[in-house]
Specification:
By secondary structure, this protein is mostly helical.
């Protein structure tokens, strides 16, 4: 099991704690955790999760961070990016790339697992 850190989220979009404080990122991590729980019907803890859950939570929280930094909005898996502070995100991957990765991971996590007998 592994934990998602606030720095994991910042690393995805190449920003520092000056641009987005730990308290904000921590709230985004919790929102991403709850969203993943609702989408999968599983109990998840971002402080102790699988590698796949960590990746999903990290990417979703990074998208939330992009929305926060640009003045956009995010509800669940729906996002709107504003035009404020876009220069801060000069090194961030494009939002559509992150969204595609997020959807791909969620599809895999929703697949039923086959038990070995």
């Amino acid at each position: 099991m592994t934990a998602v850190s606030v720095d994991d989220v910042r690393d995805v979009i190449n920003v520092s704690s000056t641009e987005i404080p730990d308290t904000k990122v921590s709230k985004m991590l919790k929102r991403a955790e709850v969203t993943l729980e609702l989408e999968t019907g599983k109990e998840i803890d971002y402080n102790s999760c699988t590698d796949a859950e960590k990746e999903f939570i990290t990417v979703l929280a990074a998208i939330y961070a992009i929305c926060y930094l640009t003045g956009g909005s995010a509800v669940g898996l729906s996002f709107s990016v504003g035009d404020q502070n876009v220069s801060v995100l000069g090194k961030a991957p494009p939002l559509d790339v992150l969204q595609a990765e997020l959807n791909r991971m969620l599809d895999k996590m929703r697949e039923p697992t086959v038990e070995m007998t």
